[in-house]
Design a protein that fits this description.
Layout: H1 7-23, H2 25-31, H3 39-53, H4 55-58, H5 64-83, H6 90-98, H7 106-121, H8 129-150, H9 156-176, H10 178-183, H11 191-197
Organism: Haematococcus lacustris
Protein name: Phytoene synthase
Pfam family, one: SQS_PSY
Length: 201
């Protein structure tokens, strides 16, 4: 794995550290315990996860067309990073720096973006627990696949475990975020469960 050296990359990685520390502190703690060789890749990936999760909040009007434009920008930026021509965004520059020599692939990032975009555009509560699992697989599980690839773990068993763990982590994160989402008039309580237990959305 290529070690980031240039000043631009150093600044980009510092930005990633700040984002992860601010928005994802629990994961920042364990990432900070990794080796110096492993840290940049994981920080870049976790910062990418944060940036793409914040898109809906950053588009104040919540206009579907604007949300789609932002996610397309990220798709194009990721593709450019894999080609070595990332736009001047710190997360994409950090990502570009850690790609050479790694097993990181673009596909899980595309799955992550698709899940985030679909969630941002569909503000209705999920119909069933299956919908939550699909969202968690598209976000948390994809991030775990990327992290495994970043540290050189290529194993069907590890991917299988990451799939299940990602679903659990994703759903637990949504449950923890219930007050946050409720304040924004958003519910992730599946409608079938709400009906079954008489819970008002």
């Amino acid at each position: 794995m290529a070690r980031p050296a240039s000043n631009n990359v150093r600044v980009a990685l510092e930005y990633c550290v700040k984002q992860v520390k601010t928005y994802d502190y629990e994961n920042y703690i364990w990432v900070s315990q990794l080796s110096k060789e492993q840290r940049p890749s994981i920080l870049a990936l976790r910062a990418l996860n944060i940036e793409t999760a914040l898109v809906a909040e950053q588009v104040k009007s919540k206009e579907p067309a604007l949300v789609q434009v932002r996610y397309q920008w990220w798709r194009d930026g990721i593709s450019a990073a894999f080609k070595g021509s990332a736009p001047k965004h710190p997360v994409l520059l950090a990502l570009q720096a850690v790609l050479p020599g790694s097993a990181i692939k673009a596909y899980p990032m595309k799955r992550l973006l698709e899940a985030r975009e679909a969630d941002a555009l569909d503000t209705q509560p999920p119909l069933a627990v299956d919908s939550l699992e699909q969202y968690a697989e598209g976000t948390a599980s994809q991030l775990l696949y990327l992290q495994l690839a970043a540290v050189g773990v290529q194993s069907r068993e590890a991917d299988h475990a990451a799939s299940h763990l990602g679903k659990a982590v994703g759903i637990a994160t949504l449950l923890r975020g219930l007050p946050y989402h409720a304040a924004r008039r958003r519910s992730y309580v599946p409608m079938d469960l709400a009906v079954k237990y008489g819970v008002s959305q």
